[in-house]
Amino acid sequence: MTNPSQATSGSDVGGSSLDDSLDNNYKGVWDGRIGFGKKPVLLVVDFMQGYTTLGSPLFAPGVVDAVANMPPLLNTARRTGTPVIHTNILYHAPDQIDGGIWVKKAPVMRAMVAGNPYAEFCPEVTPREDELVMTKQYASAFFGTSLASTLVAMGVDTLIITGCSTSGCIRATAVDGLQHGFRVMVVRDCVGDRHPAPHEANLFDIDSKYGDVIGLDETLGYLMKR
Within 13 Å, how many C-alpha atoms sit on residue 136's CB side? Predict the structure, then answer.
């Protein structure tokens, strides 16, 4: 009688060998490209000081790097007339009841209340007075906000997503962006997480299934040609 583990070893499962590399396994199945559309918006997700302040429970080294890469992208968007929308997370103090189950699962998020420095925008990406700020309580920038209807009213078809964290709010926003009918472009250099493993894994998934993960130079080139 054949041992089941021997029967599957090296065999063809789902059209590919178990020994294939990850890239080869996805090739031709989950490697399509969507590309930029005609009207983009730069979406800056939750770049708040709790993620960049050493000693904060939310501190994420990858977010520090992402924030540092933002000025040329923000400046180019503003110079080319590309709309910029920011998001932040804020809860109602003192009990954060509007955080629901999320703040029970991740009580570290309770710091996101008005007056807490961790809930302030990072200085490098502070919104201008003419830039829209969407306040949310959950991971996706679309959940419980008017973002989708706002983008439709603006005629936007492309989301250029930056911010944090890659495995949380960026992934959730990318998935919902696709599901709302937008072209999702995630700028690798301008998103970050607290550990490289979930950062890379989620960028791989986003690029495979929900949008295009692109570099900063490619993004700047697209904006400057508009």
Answer: 25
Q: At what angle do helices 61-68 and 70-79 cross, to 10 degrees?
A: 40
* CB-based contacts of 165, cutoff 8 Å, min separation 6: 46, 51, 60, 62, 63, 191, 192, 193, 194, 199
Sheet with 132-136: strands ordered across: 132-136, 84-89, 40-45, 158-164, 183-192, 212-214
DSSP 8-state class, residue 210: I
CA atoms of 157 and 173, how far apart (whole Å)? 15
| C-alpha 175, offset from chain centre | 9
End-to-end CA distance of the chain, in Å?
65
pLDDT digits (tens, 9 = 90+) for 66-124: 999 999 999 999 999 999 999 999 999 999 999 999 999 999 999 999 999 999 999 99
Backbone angles phi, psi at 22, to 5 degrees: -60, -45
Contact predicate 136/143, CB 8 Å: yes
Q: Are 139 and 168 in contact (CB under 8 A)?
A: yes
Q: What is the pTM of this model?
A: 0.89
Which residue, chain included where needed, has tokens 């629901």?
A: 100
Closest listed residue to residue 88, CA positions, set 41, 145, 42: 145
CA distance 142 to 171: 12
- Which residues are marked as active site? 169
**Pairwise CA distance, residues 193 & 184, whole Å:** 19
